[in-house]
TrEMBL record:
Primary subcellular site in the record, as a coarse category: cytoplasm
Protein location: Cytoplasm, Cytoskeleton, Cilium axoneme
GO biological process terms on file: SCF-dependent proteasomal ubiquitin-dependent protein catabolic process
Native source species: Chlorella ohadii
UniProt-listed SUPFAM superfamilies: RNI-like (SSF52047)
GO CC term, one of those recorded: axoneme
Name listed for the protein in its UniProt record: Uncharacterized protein
Span of the signal peptide: none
Amino acid sequence: MASPTEAPDWAALPFSAVEGIVAHTRSLPPHQHRSALSALRLVNRHWRSAIDDSIRSLTIPRAPPDRMAGMLRRWQHLEALTLTACGLDEAALQALGRCRRLQQLSICHYLSGVAARRLWQVLAALPALQSLSVEASDEGPSPVGLAALAACSSLTALELIEFHREEPTADVVAVLRGASHIQRLALYRSVRATGRLGFGSQGAAHAQQAFDIGFATQLTSLQLRGSFTPDDAFLQLFAALTNLRCLDISAPLMHTLFVRTANPELTDDGFLGITRLAGSLTHLELGGGHNVTENGATALAALTKLQSLSLAFSNRMSSDALLPLVAGRLTQASLHITAYDA
């Protein structure tokens, strides 16, 4: 034991004891936790190694490519990683590919020095990756090569945001065919033919037809907000997805705000088909204009497991007609209806 006049030999502290100290810091508020880890890393190389190995979750904001590669090489044991406005060059991608324990990855507005195809190849090779969220920006990435994710057998959740600059529909279908364990799929504002304004077009119709995912019966959550302007045929694509618990097919936001007339392509006939999901559906969002009346809305009475419902900016369904159909199952907080006259 060190005498009162001697400095303690912190390097002699067992590795397990250092791990215990690090574990104790996790009970601190986030800002104190980060400060504590920074201070502990300065004790000596032994402690720095122990702390780096103990970090399982990390958020990196606004890091240039040269720093990204070094940080990812340092934290090879990460299980959850969020990158916001970070630069990714080939060296950084190689370091990311060595994070073999990574289970959750979120990439938002990244600055790329490599082709998008290379990014998707690296992500597909991560053996433990279960949840992936990628938000595109003017700098990238594009969906070119996205189909490589079909080889990611561990993937259970995929979220793509703002991928409307190029058409990703066919690639997403290919991913679902290969990565058959995906249960949660989200596409937010991610169909080029729809785009930010959400106006209908022949291209949008082709994109909806191409999105034939009836084979993906393992899906439990399908969120397509702002990616399609649904019609009767589009709803039929999901008739076989009898394990769906969450379905969001809200129209694009700008379509909702500026095109307040009913979408004549979504009618009672199409909406009644949603009763095929009665055995599983607990959350339903159908915001945006449509041509469904109270007659079609009777389908809601069959959804006996429904817990939340959003029909914001509905054109033809009044609250007085809807409320009796869902009374007793939805709380006020889980029911959202904003009606415009057709």
